[in-house]
Amino acid sequence: MILQIFTLIGALGMFLYGMNLMSAGLQKAAGDRLRRFLEAMTSNRFKSVTTGLTITSIIQSSSATTVMVVGFVNAGLLALNQAIGVIMGANIGTTITAWLISLLGFKADISILAVPLMALGFLMSIAKSEKYRNISECVIGFSLLFLGLSLMKESVPDLRQTPEVLSFIQGWTQYGFGSVIIFMLFGTVLTLVLQSSSATMALTLIMMSLGWIPFHMGAAMVLGENIGTTITANIAAAVANTNAKRAALAHTLFNIFGVVWALMLFKPFTALIGAIIASWGLPNPAEIVYSGVMESTSPESTASLYGLSMFHTLFNTFNTIILVWFIPQLAKIVSTVIKSKPNPEDEAVRLKYISAGHTATAELSIGQAQKEVVHFAEISRNGLGYVREAVKAANEKSFEEYRQKLVKYEEIADRIEFEIASFLNAIPQEDISEHTRGDVQIMYKVINELESLGDSGEAISRILSRRNSHDKKFSDEQIRNILSLIELVDKAYDIMIRNLSQGHRSMVGLKMAVDCEIEINELRNILREAEIKRIEQNGTDYHGSVYYLDILSEVERMGDFIINISQAVTQEQA
Predict the structure, then answer these.
(1) Position 352 in a domain
(2) Which residue from 139, 191, 195, 492 has the fewest beta carbons nearer than 10 Å?
């Protein structure tokens, strides 16, 4: 008996691992397209629902979709109303799993093909093409999923040999509507423990196919599973921003609302499902007498499986049809419950896209990091503005204000570089495509160059401090010259940020960046030669000229860091 229990647990683990492996392979194969698809989301509620349905159907995990949505809301890529629509669609998309199990896992012994499919998956895994290697994960995951399901079916106790267990289970079905509540709570707890509504659904289908529980109790467990599955998104939102917490709460309220109306209409709703299945020429699952001795291949078992899958699908579909018209109201409710808290910290220098951690899929986590790198560049550009003001400062008090800001921004650049690098380091390399690994290497180079820009800003503040300590001043012409060079660097910043934002190789963007770098170098050379000639002619204030030339060199170095970034993102050598 103990061995049988451990076999059941191991089979469940194989099922979950197979589902995760299949999902990971699909995500790697389609991750970049999914990212663009989700980022292109419009405010149309019906498109939002369709997007959630499509993505969940592809990656076969509503939890992955909802966690992804929470991450995107936290990153500002999706508005709250859009996120709610995507979550609604994800709830419908997840019902496909139950149909796959019902149609393939019980009626056809697909586990017979599991080992040959693994052999095929292995052959694909050693192929040179990355596409085939990603597909191999899907094939092997699919095989493990159904092999685990088959082992689960075989390892559950035979209730004909243990009638006391059957008597115990059936005892909980004798309390009328109270039994519905009991099995709903059981489905909730089981989903919380397994962290997978698909695994709980598989166990429920097995219990029904063998006649352990009647159709009504299986339907009650499905309702519980819909409550339990919301915990994943809430865990992901625990460290996220206010809007992400609201999206997770909206998911919970959406499912709870559905459970409430389904409980109120439980008898007519299950009767409707029974009538639909009966119209297919199968026994009415709501009228089957369950005795714990049902064969999984019998018409009664088939009717039960199809009935529960239909219940799951119609429940989520009806719930979406009802609430899709009230998305603004639902958003208003969660906004009232979770209020925005004023944050004294300057929003311009906070992490914006990765503060909630990784999304459920590695490929989409890369999208978060790319957005954060662009944000880092924008923050870095603010530092150039403080350099400009420090050069123009007319008195020591004004200069000291901007010097402190430049010191602070150098520290901020160090921190952001470290946090982005840590985020990238935590993404499993085996879970991303070869193309994406190349993008990660580019991001490492970019954040290093951006950190160097912060160092340059702080270095300029030190040069100006030394100038002031020696009681030197720049002439109006020298200040105008420095500001002219800074303007060109600011122009280079604009081009560099546009190149980063495009996220793809752009020869036009690289040419603009190179042309701007040439302008910076030419102006620096002209200004340096003019200053050297002035020193030779006048021979006065040599010390002040040294500081002036040092500033010109450091500003030009900033241009070098910027062109390095544009070259990195365009994959070209200038």
Answers:
(1) no
(2) 195
Output the CA–CA distances (angstroms, integers) from residue 477 to 424, 474, 523, 536, in the order listed. 46, 8, 14, 18
Give me the phi and psi of 41, to 5 degrees please.
-60, 140
Same domain, 308 and 368: no
Contact between 23 and 61 under an 8 Å Cβ cutoff? The reply is yes
Distance in angstroms (rounded) separating the CA atoms of residues 254 and 92: 12
Residue 345 lies in a domain: no
212 and 69 in a common domain: yes
Measured between alpha carbons, how far is residue 382 from residues 369, 409, 485 in Å?
20, 9, 16
Range of the domain at 53: 2-337
28-46 confidence digits (pLDDT tens):
666 556 556 665 555 567 7
Give tens-digit pLDDT for 191-202: 877 767 777 887
The token pair at 452 is: 């160097």
Q: Which of 269, 267, 151 is nearest to 202 (CA)?
A: 151
Distance CA 157, CA 2 (A): 11
Residue 344 lies in a domain: no
Among 116-130, 349-363, 366-380, 524-538, where is mean pLDDT lowest?
349-363
Q: How many domains does the structure of the chain reveal?
A: 2
What does the alpha-carbon distance between residue 379 and residue 450 come to, in Å, rounded to a whole number? 10
Whether 202 and 55 map to the same domain: the answer is: yes
157/300 same-domain check: yes
77, pLDDT greater than 70? no
Geometric angle at alpha carbon 220, from 218 and 225, rounded to 5°: 95
Q: Where does the pLDDT of residue 346 fall: very low under 50, low under 70, confident under 90, or very high at 90 and above? A: very low
Indicate the length of the chain as a whole number. Answer: 574
Shared domain for 161 and 299, answered yes or no, is: yes
Residues 372 and 331 grouped into a single domain:
no
Lowest-confidence region among 36-40, 99-103, 503-507, 558-562: 503-507
The answer to whether residues 69 and 290 touch, using CB atoms and an 8 Å cutoff, is no
Which CATH number does the domain housing residue 387 bear? 1.20.58.220
Judgement on whether residues 518 and 378 belong to the same structural domain of the protein: yes
- Evaluate if residue 19 carries a pLDDT over 70: no
Quick one: 449 and 548 in the same domain?
yes
- The pLDDT value recorded for residue 431 is 67
* Close Cβ partners of 367 (under 8 Å, ≥ 6 residues apart): 35, 39, 77
Asked if residue 350 belongs to a domain, the reply is: no
Q: Per mean pLDDT, which range of 9-13, 222-226, 368-372, 549-553 is the poorest?
A: 9-13
**Which pLDDT value is given to residue 134?**
77
pTM of the model: 0.59
Helix (H) or strand (E) run with residue 559 in it? helix 542-570
CB 78 within 8 A of CB 69: yes
Contacts of range 427-433, beta carbons closer than 8 Å, 24 or more positions apart:
427/358, 427/362, 427/365, 427/366, 427/369, 428/362, 431/24, 431/27, 431/28, 431/361, 431/362, 431/363, 432/28, 432/31, 432/362, 432/363, 432/366, 433/28, 433/29, 433/31, 433/32, 433/130, 433/134, 433/363
pLDDT of 571 over the 80 cut: no
